[in-house]
Structure formats: structure tokens, C-alpha cells
Amino acid sequence: MIIGIGGVSRSGKSTLANLLVTHFRKNGKKAIIFHQDDFVFPETQIPKIKNKTDWESPQSIDFELYKEVVELFKTRFDVVIAEGLFAFYDDNMNELYDKKFHVKISKRTFLIRRAMDIRWGYEPTWFIDHVWQSFLKYGKPKKELKKVVSVSGEDEFDMEKVIKTLNH
To answer: Might you give the EC number(s) for this enzyme (predicted)?
Structure first.
């Protein structure tokens, strides 16, 4: 099974992926996660916005390599989870997913969580807004994409609901 998990920055994609891997491993399945962030092009190849590297652009991701790795590992694992901001951007990746989860949070929650995230130091307000706008433009599941299950990332995940969805 290949599971795609998408959502805006700080929505809980990695948290959900980790909870799912733990669930599957506890139940005797071989499970692995691939984070889209691990498939970014070298910084020199990524577009800039106002002299800042635009990590929020789909042009920052090597989708070809990402798909190749996911396909390779689906033969070695029972469950492969692919998560990232642009999880639903690339049609070739969308074809691979057996299950799709979109982690939703409000803009307010996004702004609060992003403000608390100090990994990259100070981020200007315009850039934080750019992250949100990029998600709206490139990260949301396309309307024609079928069977995307929305889960709330506002609080703890309802894992019973998530697991029930996977079993159907």
C-alpha cells in the first residue's frame, strides 16, 4: 500500500506519517516514510522570491526521483508513506497512491505554528504569507483527484478514523 499525505507547512503531515508507521509496525507490517523535503533540488537550482530560496515552489522538488524511490520501495515494504507539501501536485505521484490524506488546518493555526517554528530563524511576514499562498496554489488536492480523505491537524489525530479509512 502506498499512502500519500499532503497539507500545508506545520499541519501535521510528518506526525500523521509517524503515527501510521508505528501502527503498521506494531501490526507486523514493514512500513517506511519518505519526506518530500528529502527530494529537493540543490539550492542553486531552486527559484528565488525576493532573493530568498523559494522552497514553497513545486520546482524545488525532484518528482522524478521521488516517484522512482517510492516505486522501488513498494516492492520491499508492505506500506510506503510519501508525505509533503506537494504530495498531490504531481500527477505521476497521484497515480501511485492507494490512499490519500489531506491534513487540514486553519490559516490561524498555520500562522501560530509557523511563528513558533524557529528552525530557520526570523522569517519575514511576507514570506510566511507566501508559504500559505503557495499551499493554496500548488499544495491543495486538485478537484479532480478522487478519494482524498481530509483529516484535521488542529488537534490530535483521530487515529481510529484514519485506520478505519485505510481498512476500507
So the answer is: 2.7.1.48
